[in-house]
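Bench log, entry 3. Co-assembly request; chain sequences pasted below exactly as received.
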Amino acid sequence: LTPARGVSPVPLGRIAELAGATLEGDPAVAIAGMSGLEDAEEGDVSFLASARYAPHLASTRATAVFLAPGTQAPPHVHVLRAADPYVAFARVLPLFAPASTEVPPGAHPSAVVGAGVSMGARAGVGPLAVIEDGAVIGAGSRIGPGCVIGRNAVIGENCTLHARVVVAHGCILGNRVIVQPGAVIGADGFGYTFQDGAFHKVPQIGIVEIGDDVEIGANACIDRATIGKTRVGRGTKIDNLVQLAHNVAVGEGCAFAAQSGVAGSTRIGKGVQLGGQAGVGGHMRVGDGVVVAGRGGVIGAIDAGSTVSGYPARDHRTMMRVHAALLQLPDLIRRLRKLEKHSESESGPEE
Amino acid sequence: LTPARGVSPVPLGRIAELAGATLEGDPAVAIAGMSGLEDAEEGDVSFLASARYAPHLASTRATAVFLAPGTQAPPHVHVLRAADPYVAFARVLPLFAPASTEVPPGAHPSAVVGAGVSMGARAGVGPLAVIEDGAVIGAGSRIGPGCVIGRNAVIGENCTLHARVVVAHGCILGNRVIVQPGAVIGADGFGYTFQDGAFHKVPQIGIVEIGDDVEIGANACIDRATIGKTRVGRGTKIDNLVQLAHNVAVGEGCAFAAQSGVAGSTRIGKGVQLGGQAGVGGHMRVGDGVVVAGRGGVIGAIDAGSTVSGYPARDHRTMMRVHAALLQLPDLIRRLRKLEKHSESESGPEE
Amino acid sequence: LTPARGVSPVPLGRIAELAGATLEGDPAVAIAGMSGLEDAEEGDVSFLASARYAPHLASTRATAVFLAPGTQAPPHVHVLRAADPYVAFARVLPLFAPASTEVPPGAHPSAVVGAGVSMGARAGVGPLAVIEDGAVIGAGSRIGPGCVIGRNAVIGENCTLHARVVVAHGCILGNRVIVQPGAVIGADGFGYTFQDGAFHKVPQIGIVEIGDDVEIGANACIDRATIGKTRVGRGTKIDNLVQLAHNVAVGEGCAFAAQSGVAGSTRIGKGVQLGGQAGVGGHMRVGDGVVVAGRGGVIGAIDAGSTVSGYPARDHRTMMRVHAALLQLPDLIRRLRKLEKHSESESGPEE
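Structure output for the full assembly:
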């Protein structure tokens, strides 16, 4: 079996070891790639993590599959048994990752590096990036091609900034922060006063401070504070095209799906999840552990631990009942009218 | 008549010929520009494609107008008769296009081109673009200023990538693909496992594969697959700020309007249309020919051929009735209460 | 007291003077920074502009606070009395702004400047920017690092384009326009004809014209017109990730919050406000002074002066009542069923 993707094949036993899975099969079998059950080819290792995809197990062409305890495998499949099949599968993925952008230590000759820039050990700056005066690039951090790091901005250690990221002046990133292409950290907040019939810009003199282990998606925007800091807590993950306005404070361990947004000065607790295209209004408080379903629109404070959906976002179970009931509404009007007529004919018109 | 926009005037007869329209007027009249009925100046050619704009026909200052068979023109207007006036009009637009960015064949001296890059005949790379090692730029393709093409990425033939586009490592574009500025193809998908109280990144080792004749809008994002491919089918058109998550598969001939989004692993059929700001949840199937109206939020499978709207998105006609009925809801409650009181007074309280 | 942020401290009397406020306190006290009431440290000046934050006044550590006439201050606080405390506060912000990106006059040697480019007095082009042939950069305007200014585009006087902005060929910006990083002005509109089972691109030969004193947010997109102009009126402010489609016309003095969008050919009056994630459909008219609340979805014409919300967007007060009533809907169905049963048992089944 030759590897399909230019990566050397790996014996199944090595994969089981790396994943922390128990192998029920032949450790010498060669694995050449990883894929979903439906797309798998011979030589691939796959996984079953959700009952939704169980029907594909019998017909998969995968050579080996990660399965939870108790799940039966078809006879042709080697089984990698793991308590959480997807977690185990994910541990192996780096083995088969394609060659990606490499930013070697030091600054590419085409990069423009300003005065007083500090570069930590093994820090690298890619081609055609701009590092403005006084910026700090921490040890082991890699700044991708075309990035712009503003004046006196601070990038922590072992960060990865992919292509064309902007970190504006004075903003601060923690360690191991990952930023996908096109994201803009530290643009001016949307702040104006309205005087004499026109908007007047309020200078935005604050910064953005991003905690350790945060990831920020492609073309996402996190605005600098008017004063003080816009904050994103440690371990929070932010998807593509997300908007965080000025002076927003996001706690640790949150996850904001694509195209969601948070308006100015709102404080979001720890472990909060926003579904895709969800939104939270300005000057609000969202408690720890809140889940806002996709497209949910929050226009008031949300208590810790709540799951909300819809617009205005309210308790998710209630909203599911409301949305189901909505379909009956036109009929309801008809039925009510009928009762009213009946009532009138029984007792004569009132009022 | 001198041309208004620095383009040489064109005789009306030549325009009729190019558009495939029948001229009812003077072929020697000089046309200097193209515009809508309301904005037209003398020397312009315009069109009427929708009854909505019919009132502007009488007062237009256009010299000539594309009209469908049967539409009456005011006496001062030369008529270009065509079965589909807008299609005919569109054929002529290139005649009056302003001078735009030109990327000549070869790589601009300021571009950074890596090792083992393959450039097809007449392929061009604009100023300050980065082409990483092993990338392939097909014949006739033009890479705009500031673009970043990742390692081993493949751009097909006769593609146009406008300014500052990112195509990340290993991703594949077909032929005649157009990408507007700022779009990001192949950022990491939003994939994490949650263990020991924190999110852990799942390596995203798949790619994005874009079919022939696809167009992708400004600042749109199409994420690479966790494993395998995120796919966009031939001829599909994607507007600005659209989000396609990892492992999404989009069929041929779809059209996704601005700010719409599709969550991970969802499969979208052929000829599907998403209106502006519409969204589709993850792990769903949307059948061929489905139309999701603007702002529609899909949270379940949608059968082929359906037109849906609202949130949760359901049959459009039903939702129109529901939305109309909603306005009566507060009054409905009042009326129901009245009936209840009446019923109680008739028969005494129950329970 | 030493300044916390590397900016020289300023006597309170000077701050009062600059703000146009009346000082009730010691003019010699040194002010080192500015912040919100909650975050303030000793040496900071703060403000109270909304009753929402009044509870923080007693406990603030700020040295001085801007207050409206009649608001009581705690004894430890110096008071800066002003009719509009936030307006007064905003006037002082530039004193404490951190050092930011500086684009000196002239073109950075790493920039690529085409033939026939016109640069006004004191105009500056930052590192690794691309200015294509025939572009005009007005006096005092600054083009940030990594920007791409297309062929024959015109940037007015005293504009500030931050990093990585694209202004495509032929587009026109007025004076004092500010563009945040990543914004794309003049990408092709989303225009196709559908013939023979496929979409065919309609050339987009128009431009974008931006009025004086407009600000455009990070990664926002304003598409060029199919023909003629997409227009943004003087003094309008556009937030991050906003989408304005081709041939949209926006009046003067509007404010569009983040992630809102306007579909093609829609005409928006003066002084219109779109809340975050709001949307307006295509070919519509929105009158002067209209306010669309956050997430409002406009699918029809809106009369001048209206405030609308929800989807489909309708009168805001009505929608508030509707949204409140929605929660009663499941119960309403139950109550109606009960009345029907009662009615049947009284009079026997009908029909």
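Chain C touches chain B through 71 residues (CB under 8 Å). Chain C is about 15% helix and 25% strand.
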